[in-house]
Specification:
There is one protein chain. This protein has 106 residues and is an alpha+beta fold. 26% of the residues lie in helices and 15% in strands. The chain has one domain: 2-Layer Sandwich (Herpes Virus-1). The strands form three sheets. Strands 1-2 form a two-stranded antiparallel sheet. A two-stranded antiparallel ribbon has the order 3-4. Strands 5-6 form a two-stranded antiparallel sheet. The longest helix is centred in the middle third of the chain and has 11 residues. Pfam families: zf-HC5HC2H (PF13771). GO terms for molecular function: zinc ion binding.
């Protein structure tokens, strides 16, 4: 199960591929869009350049946020609209009629 969106089987077009390192499971796009941390240049640093400690911190911070769509805790995606404080799980964003964009390079 992805530690960020809490789904085992999510649409890979929405969440990306599932990645694992030392028992930490995340979807590629859940990690890129949900982490407020930065990627390190060393790809071996954890998962996709994110340190495992940073991923754990992101999960802990998200535990205090509720998803606007499903109401469950662990929402890592924050709305970027000025004045909006809504948070989402990446798979729930589609149901909530959110627009998500990822434009490389991250």
């Amino acid at each position: 199960v992805c530690m960020l969106c809490h789904q085992a089987e999510a649409d890979p077009h929405i969440c990306g591929r599932k990645l694992e390192n030392r028992g930490i499971y995340v979807h590629e796009f859940c990690l890129l869009l949900g982490s407020k941390r930065f990627q390190h240049r060393i790809r071996r640093a954890g998962i996709m350049g994110f340190l495992l400690e940073d991923i754990r911190d992101t999960v802990q911070q998200a535990a205090r946020k509720r998803c606007f769509v499903c109401g469950k805790s662990g929402a890592t995606i924050t709305c970027r609209e000025t004045g909006c404080d809504r948070s989402f799980h990446l798979p729930c964003a589609v149901e909530g009629e959110c627009i998500t964009q990822f434009l490389p390079p991250y």
